[in-house]
Amino acid sequence: MKLTAGERAFQTVNIVVLVLLSLAALYPLVFVLFASFSDPGLLVQNRGLLLLPKGFTTEAYKMVFMNPSIGTAYLNTLFYVFAGTAVNIALSSMAAYGLSRRDVFWKNAIMFMIVFTMFFDGGIIPSYLLVGNLGLLDSRWALIIPGAISAFNLIIMRTAFQAVPVELEESARLDGAGDFRICWSVVFPLSLPVIAVMLLFYGVSHWNSWFSAMIYLQDRALFPLQLILREILISNDTGSMLTSVSSGDQMPIGQTIKYATIIIATIPILCVYPFLQKYFVKGVMIGAIKG
């Protein structure tokens, strides 16, 4: 189909605007990447855009990996991501399955109470008192149990499970399957796009979480990576990584250490996202529209 002059002009303007917006969104990450590999002395002298590393050195990364707090925090974050996401998916799936069945008593009232929590929150102090009374303060489970189920994600999963044909459930029951077997062997495999999206949502949430750790944890051996990153970026706490650097060079290399820490904390999510991207739109649409 031949495009008119107006349509060609619109497409050209549309492409230019999208390219500019993409560059604006991508440049901060590129800047941080190039700055992390730049020579500290040359970097502080740079003015304007940074389109290539100023010099090339991996000294900042060496100092970051030599810091024992970073390694411990990295392992802690991996535990929180894998253990927390496993708990999230298991509990959310079972709750979504139960609330998606037609014959569940009071399911609409239960859903109303769940949705109610999305608009009204008890606040930080009641949450802290609850976690303390449960004996979870200063433990790893303080970052997993209180947020075991997200109301928003539960609603998406429930809507997706409702789209599974009821005839499949009836057929499974005729073969002697119970609710757990139907959930894990019938409904769960047919909802893999939604499960993939939930893995991404919950996993990224755990990876980026730092506020709960700041409130509930005091033992630095339990700190996640993002809390250590916050200390480095906001509190300017790079002293433990600069003991072998002369006082005159500490400020420039301290900046590159910050950039290197950001890259180290970001790369894992960037590597995982492409594998789940193909499920993203399909999973959200299935969970957002009742079939």
From TrEMBL:
Entry membrane topology: Multi-pass membrane protein
Keyword hit for S-adenosyl-L-methionine: no
InterPro entries linked to this entry: MetI-like, MetI-like_sf
Predominant place of localization: membrane
Keywords: Cell membrane, Membrane, Transmembrane, Transmembrane helix, Transport
ABC transmembrane type-1 domain segment(s): 74-274
Compartments where located: Cell membrane
Full protein name: Carbohydrate ABC transporter permease
Species in which this protein is naturally found: Paenibacillus soyae
